[in-house]
Amino acid sequence: MGKKIFIIIVVLMSISLVGIISVQVYWIKDAISNKQKQFENDVTVALNGSSERIKEKELNNLKVYIKPFVNNEQSEVESVFKNFFFQQIDTFAKSKLTFSSTILEENFKIPSKFINNDTILIRQISGKNDVHISRTFTPSNEEFRTSLLKKTSYSSYDSYNNLNRLELEKAYQEMQKFNPIHKRITNNNLYAILKEELAKRNITQDFKYAVYDDGFATPLKSGYFNIEPSKDLYYPLFEDGNGNSKYKLYIKFPNRHENLLSGMMKILLLSLLFIGIIIAAFSTSLYQLVQQKKISEIKTDFINNMTHEFKTPIATINLALDAIKNPKIISDEDKVKRYVQMIRDENKRMHGQVENVLRISKLEKNQIEMSKDAIDMHDIITEAIEHVKLLVANKNGTISTHFEAISNEALGNKFHLTNVVVNILENAVKYSEEEPKIDVFTESTNKYFILKIKDEGIGMSRNAQKYVFNKFYREHKGNIHNVKGHGLGLAYVKEIVDSHQGTVYVESEKSKGSTFTVKLPLI
Fold first, then answer.
1. What angle do CA 14, 19, 22 make, to 5 degrees?
2. pTM over 0.70
3. Nearest to 183 by CA among 247, 252, 263
4. Kind of pairing, strands 437-444 and 398-403?
5. pLDDT, tens only, 335-358
6. Is the per-residue pLDDT at 75 higher than 60?
7. C-alpha neighbours within 13 Å on the C-beta side of residue 169
8. Distance between CA atoms of 75 and 185, rounded to whole angstroms?
9. In the chain, helix, strand, coil percent, each to 5?
């Protein structure tokens, strides 16, 4: 995959992810906002219902109070009759419509139980409506040519309830003008009405309320109430005919937001779950893309490295074979033996490269049978040093040992653990630009044998330290490897140490060398 295509894919995936998450967040915010608005509307409707019920209750009380006075003729102070007459004649249809209405206004003077030594005037309106319709017609039968008259009449009685209600409300307002609100309704009644009206709209959470008179608190409240006009919902109480009122009923819900979110918790959790799945899928896809890109680069590097590793011995073998074919050389037994040995060495070198690749593959598939015995780790380290002594001597280097481990017996495979130490030592030699200076330290704890191999080589970056034990990984300087190899040595080290239930890690700094630490469990 080209670098540009990779960047384009990552950018498009990122834009898609941000877009999907933005839509989800917008939907969640919109759902919460709509839920809040719906809640506020339901509370407002409940407050309106409560206000109407309180007002209706007082009107009913007033009706009961004035009923004896209205039924008592002695309370009547004035009666007024009003007559209305309407007539319509249709000469074409030979019909006549007559409508008459009689309205009775009765005024009653009733003592007020709220205002001392005072009375109020109650007006009661009732009436009678009479309708008379007459129509002249002539029968079609010639025997009856005499004109006939058809008449229809009916009467109705009306108490004019709407007018009477308005009159009652006026009287009620006059009666209550000087009466404090806490005497008109009690806290218990107000709380019960509010609770019932809220329950009708499925609002069952705890609430607090308070009634304010022109901005001043009244005794009608549920405990301590701190008014917040910008946040608290309110509704007027005891409105007059023009819709004005000096009383406001405020209500607040202490756990409003918690209950609102709890009601939407399932939807919110599902949305968050889907967002999490989207992010996880995106992250996984992006990780796989990056890994595939790295694997592609590693594969290319590995092929190049292996090509170089095989190219040199193949060229050497070809040169040796060409030299043997020379008649002057073939007759010289010593030179033939030297060239044959050279061919054998180069062939062995290629075989070793192939074995390294196969060994890592088998380790990953758990196909290597690894017998473990009690071994002396100091002996293993000494043997490994013997393997690389000539390599170090060729570069005028030194290996110093500092065996300080009290317990050094571990359960392991001698062959593979020797290779582990050899690989680390070979790396120390290869990655030292000047004469290699290698120090080998050992120490022990109650449970572990600890081996540290310190060099003063070129070191490695922090990023390289994360991947140095990965298969085929090799640190670059530009596009050129400074040291030949195929990135399998340290991967092999980690596989072997892991199979021995141990750990291996590296501490390094650029231009200051590296320290590899191997921890193996003691017997």
1. 125
2. no
3. 247
4. parallel
5. 888 888 888 877 876 776 677 667
6. no
7. 15
8. 29
9. 50, 25, 25
